[in-house]
Design goal:
- The protein is an alpha/beta fold.
- The chain has a single domain (3-253), classed as Rossmann fold, CATH 3.40.50.720.
- It has eight helices and eight strands, in the order E-H-E-H-E-H-E-H-E-H-E-H-H-E-E-H.
- Strand 4 (75-78), helix 4 and strand 5 (121-125) form a beta-alpha-beta unit.
- It is globular and about 50 Å long.
- The protein starts with a strand and ends in a 9-residue tail after the last helix.
- 49% of the residues are buried.
Amino acid sequence: MSTVLVTGSTDGIGLRTAQVLAEQGNDVIVHGRSAARVDAAVASIGSQAVAGIVADLSDLDQVPELAGAASSADVLINNAGIYERERLTNADGEEVMWTVNHMAPSLLTALMLPEMPERGRVVFVSSTAHGRGKFDLADPGYAERRYNHFRAHMTTKLANLLMAREWARRQERVDFFATHPGVIGTKLMTEGFQKDGANTLDQGAAALVFAASNPSLAGQSGAFVVDNSISEPTGPGLDDQLAAEVFDYTMQQLGLSGQQPG
């Protein structure tokens, strides 16, 4: 069994994922922005919830504390994400969807990776619509461009897919996967998408649990997992040069460009 940090695990797919992992006998570290909701999630999971950590991922200064508190994790599921129809910024003036969905999980992963055991796993949440993403690394947060909420969101999903692929290429000790949990009928989806054809929470959680723990994925680091099987990315999701550029840009922005992955 493993110790698993699930970010954004106080409700929705994150909470259900944490509950399923606990039911399977894993120790689970719960994360959320609200202390009250973290406490409620820990209570709902029971004794398998070994810790509850409060951190706001829109503030990158809080990420190192989260990484330190979760240093015992063998598996990291970067589930936390937001969807904003309007361009919002944090206290540092950075666009929050890019920060929460991409920069924060990238920083968390980089900080936790050195302490993770060999054959640990990191899971990024992506989307089969990642091909709709489009990078402008000169302005990823739409400071100078007209904000397109759908394109901005899909660009974060593309970034997550590319980061998983590139981390898998640059180090071999820990396995990386990107997965598509489906369009889930949660609050995030109702803010950004229609509910027609939505997967259930159990279906979405099953996708994350599969990517985080299924032994059939051994030796497949960097893969994109859809419907419990490996799927070929589309369009820019196959661009190795873009993956390297996004990785290098992200690490540079995080002040980690001189560090070796893993």
